[in-house]
Amino acid sequence: MEGVEQIVAEHPFFAGFDPAYAHLVGHCAKNVRFDPGRYLLQQGAPADQFYLLRHGRVALELSGPGRGTVTFQTLGPGELVGVSWLVPPYRWTYDAKALELVRAISIDAACLRGKSEADHDLGYEMMKRFMPVLIQRLQAARLQLLDIYGAHA
Amino acid sequence: MHESATDPMVPRVLRVRSRRRDGPQVWTLELDAGAREQPGFAAGQFNMLAAFGVGEVPISFSGDPARPQRIVHTIRAVGAVSSALTRLGAGAALAVRGPFGTGWPMSEAAGRDVVLVAGGLGLAPLRPALYQLLAERARYGRITLLYGTRSPKEILFRREIDSWRKLTGVMIEVTVDHALQPWHGHVGVVTALISRARFDPGRTLALICGPEIMMRFAAEALGTAGVASEAIYLSLERSMKCGIGSCGHCQFGGLFICRDGPVIRYDRLREPLRVREL
Amino acid sequence: MSLEPQSAQLLTSEGLDQLLKALRRGGYRTVGPTVREGVIAYEDIDSVEHLPRGWTEEQSGGHYRLRRREDDALFGYAVGPHSWKAFLHPPRQRLWRARGDGDTVQIERESPDRQPLALIGVRACELQAVAIQDKVLLGGAYGDPHYRARRADTFIVAVNCTVAGGTCFCVSMDCGPNVATGFDLALTELAAAGLPAFVLQSGTPAGRKVLEEIPHRPATESEIAAARARVQQTAQHMGRQMPVESLPQLLLRNLEHPRWREVADRCLACGNCTMVCPTCFCTTVEDSSDLSGQETSRTQRWDSCFAVDFAYLHGGSVRQSARARYRQWMTHKLATWHLQFGSSGCVGCGRCITWCPVGIDITEEVNAIRASDPG
User: Fold this and answer.
1) Is residue C241 part of a domain?
2) pLDDT tens column, A90-114
3) What is the predicted ipTM?
4) What's the first-to-final CA gap in chain A, in angstroms?
5) What is the CATH number of domain A2-146?
6) Which one, B229, C179, C288, C311, has the greatest CB density within 10 A?
7) How far B232 CA sits from the closest chain A CA (Å)?
């Protein structure tokens, strides 16, 4: 357990995190690995955990009939995979596939939600770390939506 | 012809030596200067290229400034003139005026990390700067090219990008807005690459070229990373008809983009870029 | 004009006629004001008979009418829709032609027009406008060779204004109504029964030289005083005033002022103001070819920043709204012109007010922004 707590504390997502909180979050965390081509999460499945990437890159994909599989974002070391566990109905809305060997911290969503409910200071601290990621992704999605590199931008 | 040297509105006739497809609707023309000496150009400058009887458009140099006899332009067929230009085959004549405009501030790059941020076709005007940096690699710190484009099939100069990747002290990151085919590179906006790139913000020179919206976000992201506005340069695009600041078309506030630009330091652009329809 | 007593001369209308003939003998094309289709236009003239004798005009926002004067003044009006740029920086100018048969393409540059121009009846505001266009078209690294050729040989007979037009504000712009510099000869028309006489001042050796060919005599002190009084009178009757204090800063800090939207609701984006403005210089080029495709040519023509495709980039116009286009025109004229060329682009001639079909008044627009300037 101490090993995981150390790894949590050293992940960029938790930079400057209170050691007491790192200890709490450490109780919800475990180390995981995925071979290339394996899925970290799949659309429609319960969002029971999220991942903090330590090594390797992950592709976020959407697929539909006649359109094939579209990768709309790739994520790498230091970044967060999965946000649907934050809000009901706690189900994934896309697939996340390991592009190469991925090592990550997996954090149990129900565990962290429970601890955040019990200690709102922890919950607020977590929100302050999730919110910038969500906003960045929203802004990026807007830019992609504009198709600015298209011939008739 | 003999008077054209004194009249910047009168073109010289050059011929297409070769034409290569570089992407959907994108072609690179190499022009044949024949025996006549061509004026040298600075990385970042542009020529006015005309298809006879159709019209004229500004197109940046995309070749090597160390080889001014070899005039290279990368053109996307979007309008009548650019489409006509991209249809010119080997041996066809076209009318050329230039070079015009300001270049990338290559003299300021010595001893510094250089970050080039390219969006879409914006890689073409940055390629001469990259040639120049790589030719004298030892004069500079880390060189980083962050290149964002629409999809994998739209990536320009693929083979060269692969060869640049192999050079030491050079980091090349390519990202696309979305990927359909098997693609193991990055997907996402080019600004996301900035936070992952390694450069010393206090001694970095940043050169940005791409769609204006992308340049605005890239310049702000570099600012957030600690690069001063005075160390960031953008290449702006406006309607240019004359190339010499006398037809009025390319005005952007008090600037004539053809003459005071296209390469302009970000501290002069930051405020005007916020004004819609300026 | 200083109207120095020792050098001022008196010229009769007959003497003015002789001046035109002397200029024509000297190879000049003489261009001046004449009545044409209900306006005072600038055209080729070869005698004082062609001048708008006994005419004046009413001018206000969107309004222009010729009116009869009670005397036979030859210059008893202000300015019409034309300006001298039509001759110095013409609406169409071919730049080159190319001939080719596939194997060879020859480009033939259009030769500059070599016939010297004599401009008759140039007002103080117009002299300033010519000086401004000189800076725009000759001041850069290259210069327009066609304009340069025309300007090199221009002979200018200026006229001090003895009437202020209803939309004039040259006093605000500090360039009239009296001419100060940039002329070969300058005239001030004296009040008279019958054909007028003029107090005449020469400004260049060329002006003094042509004077040798025509009858004149030294002006008397009372004639000089009368001339001076008429010009001072004009200065006191300006139709408009432009509040110029810190004007560039005012406009540049108000680029999002609600007034731009308000004026855009009235503006038709017709571009009349840019066509009549004596300093507006914007041009575009057109390429064309004959049916066989063997001969092509490029022609430069006046363009207007009110045209929606003026600032066209692939994908669309940079300035889609009339608001943005009006703002571009006015801020360029009154603000960014200072940054580009070191002076205002406005000379206070009032043409843009008179010839605006809906009577938009540049001085009123500035006042509106100034009145609600948050600072």
Assistant:
1) no
2) 999 999 999 999 999 999 999 999 9
3) 0.92
4) 52
5) 2.60.120.10
6) C179
7) 21
